[in-house]
């Protein structure tokens, strides 16, 4: 174990392994799926049948599930703006053509396909007011975000570990619900996106595990800090036309809760998963402050469970301008 390292040095130690991270957790561009692999080809004779199938399923999709899918798409569409954030994180140098900057670019490039695919699919659905969706996306990028991470790589990696797991759950559930209704095309799309998110989650969890070996006290304190603030979703500033910043978020989150695509219970389960994965309970050689953080973290799932068990989601559906009436 090293003593009194600063973040930049720790990121420097890990940076030597970035090319192996790229190999292990990302897929070469020529081999990975592209949105057009999943979408009907407009030049094909079957296009009008495919389109009809997509539109029939879209019409039949329950309202909450449909707006959750749209919100997920918007979240993905705004994701490349997170790249510009990560590039400023301590220990990441945008000018580099190697190391962490390479990781951030390659990860963003994979992520960019998610919003691209979902956007094109939604356009074909015929049930979406695309202009309103585009306005929400533009606002989301325009309004910026505060994820509570500051420019601290440790906090950013906690955030991305959590977030990639959350998006994996959310896309996977939409896919499962789509499959149950017979909508094989959408199920496949959500399935391939969810699989990407699972790889990404593994990567970020691995980075945190590595930092825990090198700088355990500071890593645990950063984890505690993020959990005390509560992990906010990247779309928490979401709004639609005529609304103030963040006004739409709760309605979107309620819809996702009602259709069980992403719930308060998932939040707790992700936390438990991270605590297990990083073996937080068994990390040794901590400073006094870090031991307190460790204790706080280990008790947190139980405390959150009590709160979550008491909360109920409002039944009333909000009318999103994204959906054509
Ligand atoms: Fe994504
Ligand atoms: Fe992701």
TrEMBL record:
Q: Which UniProt keywords apply?
A: Fatty acid biosynthesis, Fatty acid metabolism, Iron, Lipid biosynthesis, Lipid metabolism, Metal-binding, Oxidoreductase
Q: Which cofactor does it need?
A: Fe cation; Fe(2+)
Give an example GO biological process.
fatty acid biosynthetic process
Which positions does UniProt annotate for Fe cation 1 binding? Answer: 76, 111, 114, 197
Top-rank lineage group of the source organism:
Bacteria
**Cofactor stoichiometry and binding?**
Binds 2 iron ions per subunit.
Give one GO molecular function term: stearoyl-[ACP] desaturase activity
Binding, Fe cation 2:
111, 164, 197, 200
Q: Which family does it belong to?
A: Belongs to the fatty acid desaturase type 2 family.
Q: How does it assemble?
A: Homodimer.
| Protein name in UniProt | Acyl-ACP desaturase
What species does this protein belong to?
Answer: Chryseobacterium daecheongense
């Amino acid at each position: 174990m090293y003593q009194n390292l600063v973040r930049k040095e720790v990121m420097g130690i890990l940076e030597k392994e970035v090319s192996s991270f790229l190999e292990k957790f990302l897929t070469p561009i020529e081999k990975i799926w592209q949105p057009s692999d999943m979408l009907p080809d407009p030049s094909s004779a079957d296009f009008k049948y495919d389109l009809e199938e997509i539109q029939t399923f879209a019409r039949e999709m329950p309202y909450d599930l449909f707006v959750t899918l749209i919100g997920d798409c918007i979240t993905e569409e705004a994701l490349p703006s997170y790249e510009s954030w990560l590039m400023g994180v301590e220990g990441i140098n945008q000018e580099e053509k190697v190391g962490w900057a390479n990781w951030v670019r390659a990860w963003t490039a994979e992520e960019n396909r998610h919003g691209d695919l979902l956007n094109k699919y939604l356009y074909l659905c015929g049930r979406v007011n695309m202009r309103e969706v585009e306005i929400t996306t533009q606002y989301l990028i325009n309004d910026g975000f505060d994820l509570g991470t500051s420019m601290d790589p440790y906090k950013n990696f906690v955030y991305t570990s959590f977030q990639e797991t959350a998006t994996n759950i959310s896309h996977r559930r939409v896919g499962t619900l789509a499959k149950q209704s017979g909508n094989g095309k959408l199920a496949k799309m959500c399935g391939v996106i969810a699989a990407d998110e699972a790889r990404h989650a593994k990567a970020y969890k691995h980075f945190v595990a590595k930092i825990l070996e090198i700088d355990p006290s500071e890593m645990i304190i950063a984890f505690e800090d993020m959990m005390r603030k509560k992990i906010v979703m990247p779309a928490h500033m979401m709004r639609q036309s005529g609304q103030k910043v963040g006004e739409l978020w709760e309605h979107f989150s309620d819809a996702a809760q009602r259709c069980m695509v992403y719930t308060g219970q998932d939040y707790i389960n992700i936390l438990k998963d991270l605590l297990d994965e990083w073996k937080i309970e068994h990390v040794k050689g901590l400073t006094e402050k870090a031991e307190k953080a460790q204790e706080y973290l280990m008790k947190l799932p139980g405390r959150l469970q009590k709160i979550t068990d008491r909360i109920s989601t409002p039944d009333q559906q909000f009318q999103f301008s994204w959906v054509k009436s």
